[in-house]
C-alpha cells in the first residue's frame, strides 16, 4: 500500500439509486465501500428521482456515521441510468472515478488493487475486473463473469460483446468526457461508452480476479428478454457499430445472437447466461 499512498491517487465513487431499490442492499453496498483497505475520498450518489422513506433513512444514517463522505445529488424526477451517470461524472471532484451499483458488494481490496494498476501504468484509462454473481447473499455464488484481461483481448471482445463488468470499472474522468460521457441507450449505456473510449485509443485492462460480488437472479434474466429489450438492443448494436470499432460482420453476428437470446423463454435465457456465457460456480 505504501506506493499507492505516496502517489496520492484521490478518487470518487459514482453511484445512482432510485426508488425501487432495496434499503438493505444499499446499506450492504455502502458498508463495503467504507470497509476498504484504501478509502475513497468521496461517494457521489445521484438520487434518480424521489426515493422511499426507507432508502432516505439508510442514507441519512450513513451520513451521520461518515460525515463529509457522501455527496448526495437529488434529481426532481427519474431520468434513467445513462443520464443520471452522465450528471454524476460531472459532479465527481477527482480525476479517477470508480463505478459501483448500489445493490452490489465490493471486495475490501478492490480499490487498492485497481489503484495499483494506475500506479504501475499512468497511461491507463480504464481498469475493471471479473465478478461473482450471487443470489440472496455472497455465499450463494451462482456464476462468475470472466472478462478479457489484456488490452488486446479487450479490443477484440468489444467488437461483439461488452468487455467490462460495469460495476467494477475505475476510469479517468478526462477519458470519459473526451468520449462524450455516458449517453442514453437503454441497457447499453456502459458498452456504448467503452467502444467510444476504445476508439479514442484509451488504454484499458481488467484485473484477473473477482473484485465485486454482483447481485443476480430471475429479474436480471427477465429484463434481457421481450420485445422492448429486443428493440432497445437492436438500436444499441446499430449505434455501437456506427462508432467504427467493429466490422459489419461483427455487427451482424452480435445482433443475431442478441435477437435469439431475447426471444427465447426466460428459463432457457437464464441457462444460456449462467452456463454458457458465464463460468458456472463450483
TrEMBL record:
What does the record give under GO molecular function? glycosyltransferase activity
Q: Which UniProt keywords apply?
A: Glycosyltransferase, Transferase
Pfam families this protein is in? Glycos_transf_2
Q: Give the top-level enzyme category.
A: transferase
Top-level taxon in the UniProt lineage: Bacteria
The EC number(s) given in the record are 2.4.-.-
Occurrences of domain Glycosyltransferase 2-like (ranges): 12-156
> What family does the database annotate?
Belongs to the glycosyltransferase 2 family.
Protein known as: Glycosyltransferase
